[in-house]
């Protein structure tokens, strides 16, 4: 246990009435690069520590809690004042009584990443080179770029003999690609996160976004199509898959908010690709990877949907306790989804409308309505492909999941590894 956690624990133990506590200490080492066009304007290397503390107080039938943050610069007196204030606030934030995770001590050292704490700046500069490798067009360019590369040392403890040490890794890039077309100058925004550095993928992603800016300037209004085979991209596909995974979490089940129960058939019929989804602690390429959840439960792989059927519940210790589950799985934020049945060629063989960039994509938990306005799409009428905009797509996910097919090709984004595309017939509106 590090000195800061020991210091805070000693102060907590002096305060009467505290039932439990949890402490999450982080020490972040980061490099930040800021570019205007392709010129490096600012380079910053930062080290900062932060400690998140949660105080618990048990009442007769309830567990009250309150959280706060401190840094190593705080005096003992300042920390004690924050602890007392949090203890007093516990009576205003009450949940039904539950037990915190117990008796778990380990250090996680198995990480699938090429990011290292040493020479972060050099690694960030290599990322910058990969970004600007795509900056090769006369009419298109990169207006600005921000690169954040961070390695975080984590230590999590609670009053129930949980002590866990692990690292997290995060690369975040923000890029503004711009294209000067015949009609107008188009500026887009690209944000990408990962727990590893894939230089080829970075160049490819930035290049695609530059060409999206070009196509946005060329885009015409979509023809009068009321219904069409629609192709959704990686982010929208991941949202749909995670939507169904979260339907069978402890929290959704306990609060009677879920549309499905354990052993329910989520998908019916044979006109779709059946979902198979696992909750996992780590995904290469996902910056949300962690060996534990927010309450300190150790995460292990768990298949939760198999061939379109809900086969296992998952969730955190609080809702697990309410449901009488002896060993909660922990609350997954990373999901791995099996690939679908359609190749890229098969998915785009006949008429389709591909949604490349949404201004917003919404998926309502209760009604199942989903859709949104599309800023850029690609329409293929069976003969010619052209960029389009000025339309929206919509449908009901509870109905369309029984008609939806997924790509063989996989992609990774925040908390997701699975099919890169999803397709089915949807309503198209001007």
Number of helices: 9
> Compute the gyration radius: what is it?
24 Å
Q: Beta-strand level of the residues, as a percent range?
A: 35-45%
Mean pLDDT, rounded to whole units? 95
Write the CATH homologous superfamily of the largest domain. Answer: PmbA/TldD superfamily
Shape: globular
Structural class: alpha+beta
CATH architecture descriptor name of the largest domain? 2-Layer Sandwich
CATH topology of the largest domain: PmbA/TldD fold
The top level CATH class name of the largest domain:
Alpha Beta
Oligomer: single chain
Tell me the helix content.
Answer: 10-25%
CA-CA gap between termini: 60 Å
Low-pLDDT runs of 5+ residues are none
Number of DSSP E strands: 24
Query: Number of domains in the coordinates?
Result: 2
**Could you describe the largest sheet, including whether it forms a barrel?**
9 strands, mixed
What's a concise summary of this model?
The chain has 430 residues and is of the alpha+beta class. It is 21% helix and 40% strand.
């Amino acid at each position: 246990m590090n000195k800061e956690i020991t210091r805070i624990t000693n102060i907590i133990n002096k305060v009467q009435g505290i039932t439990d506590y949890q402490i999450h200490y982080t020490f972040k080492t980061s490099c930040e690069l800021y570019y205007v066009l392709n010129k490096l304007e600012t380079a910053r290397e930062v080290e900062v520590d932060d400690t998140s503390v949660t105080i618990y107080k048990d009442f007769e039938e309830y567990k009250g809690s309150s959280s706060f943050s401190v840094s190593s610069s705080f005096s003992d007196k300042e920390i004690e004042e924050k602890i007392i204030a949090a203890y007093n606030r516990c009576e205003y934030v009450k949940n039904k009584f539950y037990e915190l995770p117990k008796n778990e001590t380990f250090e996680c050292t198995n990480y699938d990443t090429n990011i290292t704490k040493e020479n972060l700046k050099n690694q960030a500069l290599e990322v910058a080179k990969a970004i600007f490798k795509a900056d090769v067009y006369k009419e298109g360019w990169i207006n600005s770029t921000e690169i954040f590369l961070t390695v975080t040392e984590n230590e999590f403890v609670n009053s129930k003999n949980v002590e866990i040490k692990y690292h997290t890794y995060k690369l975040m890039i923000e890029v503004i690609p711009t294209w000067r077309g015949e009609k107008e100058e188009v500026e887009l925004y690209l944000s990408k996160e990962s727990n590893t550095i894939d230089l080829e993928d970075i160049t490819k992603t930035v290049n695609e976004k530059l060409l999206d800016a070009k196509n946005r300037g060329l885009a015409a209004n979509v023809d009068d199509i009321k219904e069409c085979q629609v192709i959704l991209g990686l982010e929208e596909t991941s949202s749909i898959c995670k939507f169904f995974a979260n339907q069978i979490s402890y929290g959704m089940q306990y609060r009677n908010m879920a549309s499905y129960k354990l052993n329910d058939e989520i998908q019916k019929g044979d006109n779709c690709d059946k979902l198979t989804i696992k909750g996992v602690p780590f995904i290469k390429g996902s910056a949300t990877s962690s060996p534990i959840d927010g309450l300190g439960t150790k995460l292990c792989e768990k298949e939760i949907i198999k061939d379109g059927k809900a086969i296992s519940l998952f969730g955190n210790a609080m809702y697990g306790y309410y449901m009488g589950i002896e060993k909660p799985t922990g609350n997954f934020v990373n999901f791995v989804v099996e690939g679908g049945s359609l190749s890229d060629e098969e998915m785009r063989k006949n008429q389709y409308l591909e949604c490349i960039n949404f201004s917003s994509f919404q998926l309502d938990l209760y009604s199942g309505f989903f859709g949104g306005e599309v800023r850029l799409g690609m329409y293929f009428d069976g003969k010619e492909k052209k960029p389009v905009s000025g339309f929206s797509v919509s449908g009901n996910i509870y109905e369309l999941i029984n008609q939806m097919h997924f790509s063989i090709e996989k992609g990774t984004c925040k908390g997701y590894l699975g099919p890169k595309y999803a397709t089915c017939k949807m309503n198209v509106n001007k």
